[in-house]
Amino acid sequence: xxxxxxxxxxxxxxxxxxxxxxxxxxxxxxxxxxxxxxxxxxxxxxxxxxxxxxxxxxxxxxxxxxxxxxxxxxxxxxxxxxxxxxxxxxxxxxxxxxxxxxxxxxxxxxxxxxxxxxxxxxxxxxxxxxxxxxxxxxxxxxxxxxxxxxxxxxxxxxxxxxxxxxxxxxxxxxxxxxxxxxxxxxxxxxxxxxxxxxxxxxxxxxxxxxxxxxxxxxxxxxxxxxxxxxxxxxxxxxxxxxx
Length: 243
Description:
- The structure is a single chain.
- By secondary structure, this protein is α/β, with parallel strands linked by helices.
- The chain has a single domain, classed as Rossmann fold.
- It contains 13 helices and four strands.
- A four-stranded parallel β-sheet has the order 3-2-1-4, sandwiched between helices.
- Strand 1 (26-30), helix 2 (35-47) and strand 2 form a beta-alpha-beta unit.
- Helix 2 (35-47) packs across helix 8.
- The longest helix is centred in the middle third of the chain and has 23 residues, at 106-128.
């Protein structure tokens, strides 16, 4: 078990220094009602009072119901400013224009909402001199379970070294809303979707593998396949260099 008291103090100091060195007026983060964004929101609010949470429903019914309810539970408990930007009509308008020039496949459709959300966060950040906080954890990054230039984009990420299990433990320590701690991890991209169902492997198996190297053959094959196929997401941009 990590020393979450020391972790909390260290991460808050890290965020506070980043905001001050960037001469930023505050922080903005996407609030989906999930565990990762809950931990990021708690840490950011402790470091910078001018922290803004943005709820961004986009087509999925659960975005308007359970996700919004859980997101509100977080901001109410910790006194975080919250705004809502409904992106469903934006997504529909984008699809309408895209369908004039190409055929949208499932992958393109799935990645559309996360990229619209990040566009929204950066627009607010630019308008109000805020840094955009990332909410991805170590387990998701290893698996490539994030959208490139979507939820994978940010100015800083205060939880990127924590596995999904450690995020859960951290939230338990902080006594975060029970509804968030107990919910199944989900990107909320469509109704009934869960991360573990999508990947075919549990976060417990992924985290045990990352922290101890122990894993059964079937889970290892899945984890290694995801990691290999998503390597491009973790690489810096490939640039031509004139010699």
